[in-house]
Structure formats: structure tokens, C-alpha cells
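--- STAGE predict ---
source: upstream dedup step, 1 unique chain passed
mode: sequence only
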Amino acid sequence: MRFQRILLKFSGEILSTRGGGGIDFEKLKGFSRQIADVKALGTEIGLVIGGGNILRGSSTVESGMDRVSADQMGMLATVINALAFQNALEQVGVDTRVLTAVRMEQLAEPYIRRRAVRHLEKGRIVILAGGTGNPYFTTDTAAALRAIEIKADVLVKGTKVDGVYDGDPMKEPGAKRFDSLNYADVISKGLRVMDATAVLLCMENHVPIVVFDLTKEGNLERVVRGEDVGTIVS
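--- STAGE serialize ---
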């Protein structure tokens, strides 16, 4: 294997039902099986999930809500997704722990870096919820921060497309896909990999980012094995 410890990040929207929003539990089961297969290789996995399938702080702000309140609601949405994922992973035989940056001991353990690392060393998948625990920071930034803190070999971002393009491949058929990029290019070109804060954190701490299509069965395992999948930013 090329990567021994990974931080897997994906948006809540990838869990949405066909009607949009909510949790598609069949998708959840499929992603859980992929993650379990990678875990069986001996990979240590940290997982950060967005909450956009339930509530997006940015869109709530556009409706007139205070930004801090909107972001706090978004943090709670990530906890809902984390608990759903915990249940799905344990149904396929994987031991997990949910750690959240927003304290709620009845539901999950508080996030403590050393505790998260110890869980990983014991072979548990660690689901990191609640973002950074602060407003004005995205779950992309939370994923970059946690990847650095747990000393992940790579930040793996699962999406619905097979890499990073110079345009929206859903709307622009001629959009070009990149096999590899450097951090500076991502920021200067305004490419939609992750937000700029997350990319800068990864650049400053030398954490590579792999963007790939998580919806294709087996792709996560291929990424972990170091195969040529998606786009790598380094």
C-alpha cells in the first residue's frame, strides 16, 4: 500500500436522496462497504463528512440568518451524518468511534487529538464531526486540519466526478481533467478542489490531496494502493 493512514473527506450532498436532501441509506451502505474493504487492508482511516444534505450554512445565510447561528446548525448536521455512518459501518463489522468538536457526550466523544490517534492505532475508524467547532470554517478546512493533526499520509476527497477539471464537467463537455496539480495552481486558477484555507493548510504542512470519484465501486481501494485514480494535488 502507498498510504497507511488516510483522512477521507466527502460532502454531505453525496449522501442525498434523489429528491435532494436527507440521507440515502442505500448509498450509505455502499460507501460503508468500500471503506470496510480498505480497512481490511490494514489502512487507518479518519473520516470527515459535510452536512450539506441536511443543511448548508452558506445557503441559510442567504435567507437572512446570522452566519454564526447558521454555521452552528451546519455543525450539528455533520453530527447527524456521522452517527448514520457509524451505524452503517458497524453493520458491516467495522469498529468505529465518533469524535466531535462540539461537545455532546451523550452522543459522541469530544475531539481530542491524542484520543483520535489512539483509536486509529487500535484499528478503529474515527469519524470526526462538528467541523472545527468554530463558525466561518468549512468542513474542507476541518478535514485539512484533522489530516495534519492525526499525521495522515494523504487527504482523500471523494466526489461525484473523477478528478479536478478546469470547468464544470456537468455543464461544459469540453472541460479538461488534470492528472496532477500543485497547490499554487489550485489557488491561482480558482479550481474547485477545496476552499483556499484548506489548500493552504495542506501546502504548508506537505499533505497531498487526492480528488476522485467515490461513487465508482473500488475507487477508494485503488487510491489507497497508489494507483492512478483521480487528480493528485501536491
